[in-house]
Fold these 2 entries.
Entry 1:
Amino acid sequence: MLLLHLCDVKKELKDNLIDISLNKKISERHTFVSNEVSKRAHHGKGHLNSEKNYLNNVPIAIKRAKDFSCTEEELISNIGTNIGVLITRLNMFQPLSMNPDIIMVL
């Protein structure tokens, strides 16, 4: 959920958790969540500025995601994300060498 990179959803949007879950279209351009992302990141869907708005905030987004559902079973009927679990697992498999010609897998 990109919104976790931009704000503490549990605190800042605590009164809108049902709106996030339903994520209804609220305008011709936006659903509820995409509108919140756009307001906070000051961009439209086509201009993400990924490094500034998202990549630098991955660690905090992973931490914030722990306040929500993160298992496949829970995600069926609850808001949340399991991307943080995936990223954490991938970080356990970093190559020993940064040389692209010498990638060692343990």
Entry 2:
Amino acid sequence: MKLTKEQMDFLKPYEGRMETATKSNWASAVSQTELEGITQILNQVTGGNRRANANCASCILEILTDIGRIYFAQKEAESKPATQRVGKTITKTAKVQGVAVKTKRKA
């Protein structure tokens, strides 16, 4: 379930709507053509067969919420750096039983 760069670029203008849908459980109206494009991407990524209906408010909310979760998870994963530099050593953050611990390794 990974979005391609083209799909991420297509969804970028709808980022505000997806954020509202995922965080506030509310969605503004979307045109039929926009909704069909978003639904097509959702179906490609999930392998589902959802139908787009611009007259169904709960359907729009569900589609925007689902694609928003995928979009923001991928965006967050891409923005996190894998390693951080502290002084002359490279540190890596490792999770141990839910606690973040820094481990050092020589470069």
